Amino acid sequence: MTLSTAELEQAPAEPPSLTTALSRGTAQAPSAHDAASFSRTQNTASGFVLSARSDAFRRRFYPEVSQKTWSDWHWQYANRITSLGVLGTMLGLSEEEAGAGTGLAALPLAVTPYYAAQFDPHNPAHPLRRTMVPTVEEWSLNPGESADPLGEDSHSPVPGLVHRYPDRVLFLATDSCSAYCRYCTRSRRVGKPCAGSASRRRWPAAIEYIENHPEVRDVLISGGDPLTMTDSALNHLLSQLRRIPHVEFIRIGTKAPIVMPQRITPALVRMLRRYHPLFMSIHCTHPDELTPEASQALNRLADGGIPLGSQTVLLKGINDNVPTMTALMQGLLKNRVRPYYLYHCDPVQGSAHFRTPIYKGVEIIRGMRGFTTGYAVPTYVVDAPGGGGKIPLMPDYVQGYDGEELVMRNYEGGLYRSYDPAVPLAAHNVHNAGPAGCADGDMPCL
Ligand code: SF4
Fold first, then answer.
1. Which residue CA neighbors atom 1 of ligand 1 most closely?
2. Rounded Cα–Cα distance for residues 64 and 60 (Å)
3. N or C: which end of the chain has fewer CB within 10 A?
4. Of ligand 1's atoms, which has the minimum distance to the CA of residue 107?
5. Which residue segments constitute the domains of the chain, with CATH numbers given?
């Protein structure tokens, strides 16, 4: 049975418990994924906002859980959905999804109830659902793919630390996440049993390495997701790093405000603001993720003075078109998140069904630049396989030199010339497209 949004609003306040409903086969999920279901909200006793969509899901599947408990991140984390069996009673799995259950050894399944509430239960192609629900396509190894496509392990001087760039390091603080993205670059290591405690044991050697390398001025704390750690664990790590005089800048990479926004408590923000300058990179993939809950989490962080940037992976059938990407980036700006990187999907094994051709990202940037505010346009990068680092890719706006004029194409495709005589000979030779190309306005791109 499919419920309309209006029917959901009238759903009985106390349907049978999840267990009872599941055993009777009567549990129903929220129906169509529509914008209106995001917009109606209420404040819970904990002070955290609750959208009508999330609350309908709670009432259907977790009727014994109060709004206050639902809005507690500890409950969300402890009650992550980790089996296809349970998820299947909420979504109705496709053949491809149900078939993935034969071996979830590489990357486990975990989705917070909050994030599962945002899925369209009737559409396996729904973008958010595709990023979290495994399919049989994960089990193929495709050309160019590997377990560690960025060569992180070979740039790791001590366990849990990657030192690839001159003045910054990646600190892998934990191997746990609140939800596991099926295209995760670190699927070889995240989500393993004892992920939290094992990763904690790596900290002392990693901190000592940073202490002994004065060139390291920037530490990116990532994982896994650092915001799956308790406030006290994170506070401990941040205080250790802040004691190192040459560490000028700390960043945290996280998807928690998107998949478990309840994690962004006032107490967390109060703790984080003691460690400025502290930046945060928010991993997000689709405008549907910008729910009232996510919006509140992001605004709490911004109110705490934490500069927010975004990281988005370009994903086939999920966000690989100009309108979706523009809506995402504009939505992030409205939530005070500055679009930062758009990543080409790394060739981690079993991810071909998510990967677009590289030119697709360039096309999307071309379709955004000039058509919306420059603040909304991220930098498209390919993380070079084997550890070459991020390589930015841009549309070709420079057409070449014609004599002492640089010929450029604007965002609408028009050709414009700028008198620019002081050109080093080498650059002139490289960029000169020749008068014939200029004459008919059809100069070759560089
Ligand atoms: S949140 Fe990040 S580390 Fe965790 S599964 Fe997703 S991409 Fe991987």
1. 255
2. 10
3. N
4. 5
5. 5-127 (no CATH), 153-392 (3.20.20.70), 398-439 (no CATH)
Centroid of ligand 1 to alpha carbon of 128 (angstroms): 14
Q: Which residues are catalytic?
A: 164-165, 168, 177, 181, 184, 186, 346, 383, 390
The SS3 assignment for 18 reads: helix
- As a 3-state breakdown, the chain gives helix, strand, coil percent values, each rounded to 5, of 40, 20, 45
Asked if 290 and 326 count as a contact pair (C-beta separation under 8 A), the reply is no
139-167: per-residue pLDDT in tens?
Answer: 888 888 988 888 888 899 999 999 999 99
User: For 158-167, b where at least 16 C-beta lie within 10 A, e where not — what string?
Assistant: eebbbbbeee
When pLDDT is cut at 50, 70 and 90, the band that residue 28 belongs to is very low
What is the DSSP-derived secondary structure letter of residue 175?
S
Angle at 423 (CA atoms; ends 421, 426), nearest 5 degrees: 150
- Find the radius of gyration of the CA atoms of the chain: 24
Cα(154) to centroid(ligand 1), Å: 20
Residue whose CA is closest, atom 6 of ligand 1?
181
Closest CA to 325 of 378, 282, 373, 370: 378
> Please, are residues 14 and 22 in contact by the beta-carbon 8 Å criterion?
no
Q: Is 331 helix (H, G, I), strand (E, B) or coil?
A: helix
**If you take atom 7 of ligand 1, which residue's CA is the nearest one?**
184
Which residue ranges make up the annotated binding site for [4Fe-4S] cluster?
177, 181, 184
pLDDT digits (tens, 9 = 90+) for 126-146: 999 999 999 999 988 888 898
Amino acid at 18: L
In one-letter notation, the amino acid at residue 300 is R
Helix or strand run (H / E) with residue 304: none
